[in-house]
């Protein structure tokens, strides 16, 4: 996965406190976001802020060495054990990007609806099936991110097709992580940014 904007990724994933453990010593700590700033609370209940600059330095070193040892980052940050644990957690969480495509999945429409019901706080990427096979297609206008509650991606009464969401020209990719879904959209379409539906913009105000 891409770690280019790792600080903002952590702000998203740790908007609610998450307890993690450092890799080597298995020491518990908590990561959380407050007023768009990232904090760590260690096992002794001491709290400190994680600065975006040290995160950027950590990411730069990681991309050079791919080391999972905190000691290899001591000259750029003393919080590497926390950042490595956060990276592992986010990687595991981001793996849950699910495709609902009628040509790939039996009962894709039913499974898509089940996912929507099970993940009311999740996100949906809507894109043309041809996006993956046609280099001549400009996917900018046909690729869009939605919240699960958006009527345009979950109200079948608006359509006459028996499988309007996954069986016609479009298919859906879903995740509880907006960042992971956006990265998947960029990977498929090669767009530099992905359009967000008004339902999502209003949710994020």
How would a crystallographer describe the biggest sheet? 5 strands, mixed
Shape: elongated
Q: Could you say how many structural domains there are in total?
A: 2
Mean pLDDT over the residues: 86
C-alpha Rg, in Å? 19 Å
Low-confidence stretches: none
Structural description of this entry:
- The protein starts with 5 loop residues before the first helix and ends with a helix.
- The mean pLDDT is 86.
- It has 6 helices and 9 strands.
- The protein has 205 residues and is an alpha+beta fold.
- The protein is elongated.
- It has 2 domains: 6-94, no CATH class; 98-203, no CATH class.
- The strands form 2 sheets. The protein has a 5-stranded mixed β-sheet with strand order 5-8-6-7-9, with helices on both faces. It has a 4-stranded antiparallel β-sheet with strand order 1-2-3-4.
- The chain has helices at residues 6-13, 52-65, 80-94, 108-118, 178-189, 198-203, and strands at 18-21, 28-34, 37-42, 47-50, 98-100, 123-128, 144-147, 170-175, 195-196.
- 32% of the residues lie in helices and 20% in strands.
- 29% of the residues are buried.
Which key features would you list for this structure?
single chain; 205 residues; alpha+beta; 2 domains; 5-stranded mixed beta sheet; 4-stranded antiparallel beta sheet; 6 helices; 9 strands; 32% helix; 20% strand
How are the SSEs ordered, and which strands pair?
Blueprint: H1 6-13, E1 18-21, E2 28-34, E3 37-42, E4 47-50, H2 52-65, H3 80-94, E5 98-100, H4 108-118, E6 123-128, E7 144-147, E8 170-175, H5 178-189, E9 195-196, H6 198-203
Parallel strand pairs: 7-9
Antiparallel strand pairs: 1-2, 2-3, 3-4, 5-8, 6-7, 6-8
């Amino acid at each position: 996965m891409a770690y280019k904007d790792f600080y903002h990724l952590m702000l998203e994933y740790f908007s609610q406190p998450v307890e993690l453990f450092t890799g080597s010593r298995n020491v518990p700590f908590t990561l959380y976001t407050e007023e768009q700033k990232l904090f760590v609370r260690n096992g002794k209940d001491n709290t400190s802020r994680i600065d975006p600059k040290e995160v950027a330095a950590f990411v730069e070193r990681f991309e050079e060495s791919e080391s999972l040892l905190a000691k290899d980052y001591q000259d750029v940050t003393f919080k590497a054990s926390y950042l490595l644990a956060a990276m592992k957690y986010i990687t595991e969480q981001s793996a849950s990007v699910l495709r609902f495509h009628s040509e790939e999945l039996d009962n894709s429409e039913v499974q898509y609806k089940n996912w929507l019901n099970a993940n009311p706080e999740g996100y949906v990427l809507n894109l043309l099936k041809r996006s993956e096979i046609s280099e001549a297609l400009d996917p900018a206008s046909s690729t869009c991110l939605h919240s699960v509650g958006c009527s345009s991606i979950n109200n079948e009464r608006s359509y006459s097709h028996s499988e309007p969401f996954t069986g016609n020209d479009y298919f859906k990719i879903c995740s509880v992580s907006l960042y992971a879904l956006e990265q998947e959209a960029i990977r498929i379409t090669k767009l530099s940014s992905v359009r967000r539906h008004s339902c999502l913009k209003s949710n994020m105000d």
